Amino acid sequence: MAEMFELKIIEPDGMFFEGQASFLEFTSVMGEMGVYANHIPLTTILAPGVMKIHNDGQVKKAAIMGGFIEIQKDRITVMAENAEWPDEIDVERAKAAKKRAEERLQKKDAGLDTARAEAALKRAMARISAAK
Ligand code: ATP
User: Fold this and answer.
1) Residues 66, 96 within the same domain
2) Which residue's C-alpha comes closest to atom 21 of ligand 1?
3) 57 three-state secondary structure
4) Over residues 86-98, mean pLDDT
5) Which residues line ligand 1 (CB under 6 A)?
6) What's the Rg (C-alpha) of the chain?
7) Residues 59 and 106 occupy one common structural domain
8) 97: number of CA atoms within 13 Å, CB side?
9) Which residue segment(s) compose the domain that 68 sits in?
């Protein structure tokens, strides 16, 4: 059996997930990462993306809308801006948000908040991908 670590995913309004995991996949601002137990300590910033919690062959997916991740040898703590399980995601709403953001980025109207549109696009893509 793979060595396990303790995982906590905390949202502003409380605990989203607390349990054991053997491997964790997530999107940091440095790119896609995968972490096993006994990783060197590391704290980094999360980008919107899909988090995959592995526990001996089982995988739970969640859309994480950004935040921080603190990796220690035997525990990982995620402080997420917002986290959603696949069954909480309204895919049609996410598709509409994606289309809106893409149209804004394409049109480039004066006064467009590019960073905001890009962030909305990433959130929508994280939701669509987690719900698949
Ligand atoms: P939208 O433009 O559709 O509101 P958004 O990315 O701007 O999307 P957020 O600001 O990230 O939305 O989220 C606002 C609230 O709406 C949060 O509570 C979030 O969980 C919820 N939410 C947003 N999109 C969805 C979705 N597709 N399915 C379920 N809940 C969603």
Assistant:
1) no
2) 89
3) coil
4) 98
5) 65, 82, 84, 88-90, 93-94, 97, 120, 123, 127
6) 16
7) no
8) 19
9) 5-84
